[in-house]
Amino acid sequence: MIFNCFVAAFILYFTAGSGTTAYDGYNDFVEEDNAPQLDYKDPQWCHSPGLTNGEVTCHSPRGAAYRSTLGTRCEMSCDRGYRLLGKSSIHCLANRRWSGTAYCRKMRCHVLHLIPHGSYTCSQGFMVDSRCDFTCDTGYRIEGEHSRTCQRSSSWSGTQPICDDTDPPKIKCPPSRLKVAEPGKLTAMVTWDLPAATDTADKSLNVILVGQEPGTDFKEGANIIRYKVYDQARNKAACKFIVRVEVRRCPDLPPPLHGYLTCSSDGSNYGATCEYHCDGGYERRGASSRVCQFNRSWAGAPAECVAMEIKSDVKTVSALLDQFHEKRRLLIMSAPNISDPDYQLQNIMIQKSDCGLDLRHVTVIELLGSPPRETGRIKESLLSSEVIEGLRQVFRISRFYFSMLLLDELGLDRERFITPMASDELFSYIDSFLLDEEQRERLELHRDFCD
């Protein structure tokens, strides 16, 4: 009787779990003829479990031969590269079903980003254990990991590398060159084609000139021209060449005795012109100038400075003045007679300043007395009465009082003095108003000559 009650209670539990109708009363039930019979001995109570891309490990209470009998517990595991979704452990129930389901899904990592100036190739795409190898474009080098592997955690090993531009650009300068300076110059204009720069990575490069621009005048000697170029990664390349300017020169031209030279440009370079000048009291004989030629020799023959010959026996005042035109200045001194005190004082000062007058190219003419005893002279040379009278009339010089008249190199009346003049005052006036800049410089060079 006790056994029958147990069986009835078990059947009620099983049928309620199987969807059969259950009644309220303990004894009020209908026993069906087709009710399942529990059989722990049936080895195929549940269907044989399987797991694609995985492994099922079962443990039965009745031993290894009963892997799907009632009460069997199975552990689910996936192959490498797959992830288990569902139950990791199931057991065979009395309703001939397993307590859960599971399946294995292929594992993968996220898509790797492309790296600038590079690429990668993967052995198995983005699946687990796939290895992706990175390469860089020409001119770039990998900085960091050369490869990454998709791990079971669905993450990539390492960090993403970068492609770094380490290849410097290339630049080639034009060849060095030699150019002769132009006539009369110490420089030469030199041009050249700009150097071409290339780079394996960058198409546009910034080429920088260090030195003088092409198409400009270069000075004598060696001029170093440099170019440098940077790519976008600041890799640098440089080149250089030499622009050499040659100035062809003649031997130094010696100045004439009792004279000097004034030269254009640098004085001895090709195309330079040197002019001959004579000191006061001397005049040039020969060519007025010489030119330095391309073959490094001077054209023509040297000039010389000879003592100036003044002809006092001329018959007209114009013939006398023509001898001094553009060569000498004249200081005409007039006095009523030789015993005039102003004349005597001025004559003493003139004699003491004779050297300074020569440096300033000044010739003194003396007119003394009245006809018939009137005399005119240049130092010891006497002038004719016609020339004396002509000088007095042309320049309005009186016979009745002391006076001095200063004429420039063109014969123009520049200043009159009615009292004796000290040499310092006379020289100061001449230096300030009658000498040009070049003559003043020459005077400064020879000022000590008279001390």
UniProtKB/TrEMBL annotation:
Chief place of localization: other
InterPro entries, sorted: DUF4174, HYR_dom, SRPX-like, Sushi/SCR/CCP_sf, Sushi_SCR_CCP_dom
Listed GO CC annotations: cell surface; cytoplasm; extracellular region; synapse
Domain HYR, residue spans: 164-247
Protein name: Sushi repeat-containing protein SRPX2
Ranges where the Sushi domain occurs: 56-106, 107-165, 248-307
Domain of life: Eukaryota
Chain's gene name: srpx2
Natural source organism: Cyclopterus lumpus
GO biological process, one term: positive regulation of synapse assembly
CDD domains per record: CCP
Pfam families per UniProt: DUF4174 (PF13778), HYR (PF02494), Sushi (PF00084)
